[in-house]
Amino acid sequence: MRRQTSVVKVDPSNPEREAIARAAEIIKAGGLVAFPTETVYGLGADALNPEAVKGIFVAKGRPLDNPIIVHVAELEHLGILADSIMAGAVALAERFWPGPLTLILKKSAGIPDNVTAGRETVAVRMPRNNVALALIRACGVPIAAPSANLSGRPSGTTGAHVFQDLAGKIDLVLDAGPVEIGVESTVLDISTRPPTILRPGAVTAEELEGILGQVVLGKQGELLRRSPGTRYRHYSPKARVTLVKEKDRETVDRLVEKCRNRGRRVGIITRRPDFRQSSEGVIVKVMPRELGEYARHMFAVIRELDGEGVDEIIVEEVEERGIGTAIMDRLRKAAWGK
Ligand code: TXA
Ligand code: MG
Questions:
Q1: b/e map of 260-273 (b: 16 or more CB within 10 Å)?
Q2: Residue with CA nearest ligand 1 atom 32
Q3: Which of 108, 137, 158, 161 has the greatest number of C-beta atoms within 10 Å?
Q4: What is the model's pTM?
Q5: How far is the CA of 228 from the centre of ligand 1 (A)?
Q6: 281: Cα separation from own chain's centroid
Q7: pLDDT of 60-74, one tens digit each?
Q8: Given its phi and psi angles, is residue 322 left (phi above 0), alpha (psi -120 to 50 degrees) or beta?
């Protein structure tokens, strides 16, 4: 179904009431609205309306076995969504919500099957973003929302990215400019023991351990079973992505040379400002040293390189601490299978 996609600019801290009211009307009528969160933009539908949720899968081209995160604005709404609130869930929610942490809980009977892709669990989070919170409150229902990108593409971190991917497929984009964090939420499965991180994000394992004691990082094979989203190609630009060790200038030079000999255009993502435009046909993107800033710009830079039509993207690894773990997770997935 072709849809007329409107874009409405909103004030990120104090969203205009009319814009929120219009978006809420669309959601309540079963439509699709993209909205900012602190992590990435989400593509929202009424989580209690299976037809509306089906529209999300269609618009994104999302595999039907990949479940969707449900967004709430009040802690009390956990009770509607989850069957039994597992030990630790409330403590985690009180500490990290609103914020970039998604909890996997045993689901209640009221949630449509397509939201959870037929699973016994539901993913829930409360976003730390005034536009998102105002929208959820105005709708009066929880909002199911995956990242607002075509399935397999890098997540959208600006309203423009969302429009690029989803124009003609959704009803409205609430455009509040660039997001705060830039990588998707930490997904933590607390429906089984020990609590397992299925996707790293801005809330780190160390922070979670502060509340829960032991937390483990999901292992590759196990993740395929427990976290359907990891099965699919992700964050994939059209170009081929290769990761190299930081400071390994020789490997970078060798890769660039090889590509150029084959007439392939190359993009380099580096954090070294001294990395000058080394040669013709090579586009260098110098990223911020600080990892939070890096995360904020990462998907945008990958999209830019794609827009410039490069065939290969060479990316220097970053240190895997703090949000660096999430950055490396996304970069590995972007490089995966190419
Ligand atoms: O920051 C975020 O989490 C953003 C914003 C919009 O909230 N959302 C997001 O949604 O990244 P999505 O659909 O792109 O990624 C959700 C991930 C997928 O890997 C999905 O498989 C996993 O969460 N997931 C959802 N429900 C699950 C469940 N019941 N069990 C295991 N994994 C689940
Ligand atoms: Mg996604």
A1: beeeebbbbbbbee
A2: 227
A3: 161
A4: 0.96
A5: 9
A6: 31
A7: 999 999 999 999 999
A8: left
